[in-house]
Amino acid sequence: MDDNGAADRVRTLFLGSGAFAVPVLRRLAAHPDVMLIGVVTAPPRPAGRHQVLTPTPIGALAAELGLEPVLTPSRLRAPDAIEAVRSLAPDLAVLADYGQIVPPPLLELPHGALNLHPSLLPRHRGASPIPATILAGDDLTGVTLMRMDAGVDTGPIVAQARFALDGTEQADELEEILAEEAATLLTDRLRPWLRGELEARPQPDEGATLTRPLGREDGRLDPLRSAVEIERQVRALQPWPGTFLETPSGRIKVFASEPLPPLPDQQPGTLVTDDRGGLALATSDGRLRLLEVQPAGGRRMTGPELARGLHDRSPAVEDGRP
Predict the structure, then answer these.
(1) For residues 49 and 224, what is the distance between their CA atoms, to the nearest angstrom?
(2) What is the DSSP letter of 101?
(3) 306 lies in which domain range?
């Protein structure tokens, strides 16, 4: 392959929608071995108070970089969408954070379809690997570059990058880190892959897990669980779907928290003030200090600010200070 000749660059199609894919596309567009012939992303969707049609992060980046064409099929597997993709005559597809099933014609390209997945496959296959990593308390995560097959994240592994966790990561922050790791992994391994110098190895069956799409109800905090588990849930589900408590004073959104030891005779679900004048939730085995919250109809605030307000108008908060 002549690195300087456009005729020798591989005709490459990129598929992605979410923020995780942004560094990947930016790096792919500048790769010397690639001729980027098109971008496939989800259609623009209404956003904000005025429901303005807004492109995906990848749609916005494609416009910034002047990439054309940008295809936005509602269903990639629809015959007209498949025909539009095939008309571009790609030899390679690269996918990151796209969110749709890829049809067989894209899996059978000369250089295949490569997917960047934010977990160490086969652990945390599926729709929500980053939240699942935090919820499970994993101390190691990473990014997998794999050749796609007809299954859900079951294709053979081309390369992986590993990343240690310290147990304080929030999902959106971890996504940013792993997105950069993914972009670097693709940059480093794409040329050897195109030259046939890398061999994809089948995923092991041992340790395989499958995640699912998240919904708003996944954000409900259950005080019958442990404080450590609930604190992970708060970090894992930011910013979507977010986490919340139901209290006698109404729903409270929780943005940040930390586990604390239990108090004598505490009842799970009780809100108590802590030794800092803040607010804590009694759980099955301890307390969860509420560091940053938002009461129904109110603004985002600290736990102590909310504690003062609840004490003024509700008997639901007990004095839990030693």
Answers:
(1) 36
(2) P
(3) 216-319
